[in-house]
Amino acid sequence: MAYNPDIHHRHTLRLDGYDYSSEGLYFVTICTSDKQCLFGKIVDDEMQMNDVGRMVERWYLELEHKFPSIQGLDYVIMPNHFHCIIYLDNDSVGADLCVRPNTSTAISLSTIIQWFKTMTTNEYYRQAKKGIWPTIGRRLWQRNYYEHIIRSQRSFDEISNYIKSNPTRWCDDEMFVE
């Protein structure tokens, strides 16, 4: 069924009028479709990633190579979701050449997340087609993602600590599935 705004009430999760290609720190959460626990499990308050979780980690670490204007900072892969902090600085691209980047080619947070979700999904389905990983529904990830613009050192510290300690709070997590 095609999108019909009269019956489909999609609301943006983005801050109205904010330029998501602006320099800054972004806390991102991406959840698996239907909260499927595909990336491993929590054992003794530590995440034990399986091959799918390690694949997600590999593609996260690849982001800096694909997009030189970003730094991937703290991250955690949980059984059915992924948290990370991304530092985006489009102004730094070409800085060694004393050239200001073309703003029309500036990378946005949504472009980064779209590429990450595409690469992980494509690899997942290649492996599932070979019978290596289980076949799942139509999607690996939920349609959208959550983001929070980090505006202070205090906020960064709190979010960084949240990411690092996330496995210890798994049973209390809203994404918890047994």
- Report the sheet-strand fraction: 15-25%
Quick one: how many beta strands?
A: 6
Main sheet strand line-up: 4-5-1-6
Q: What value does the Rg take, in angstroms?
A: 17 Å
Q: At CATH's second level, what is the architecture?
A: 2-Layer Sandwich
Structural domain count? 1
Order of helices and strands: EEEHEEHEH
Question: CATH H level: which superfamily?
Answer: Transposase IS200-like
Shape: globular
Unreliable residue runs = 8-12, 95-103
Question: How much helicity do the residues have?
Answer: 25-40%
Structural class: alpha+beta
Q: Report the span from N to C terminus.
A: 32 Å
CATH topology: Alpha-Beta Plaits
Taking the sheet with the most strands, its summary is:
4 strands, antiparallel
Q: In CATH, what is the class?
A: Alpha Beta
Number of continuous helical runs: 3
Report the average pLDDT across residues. 87
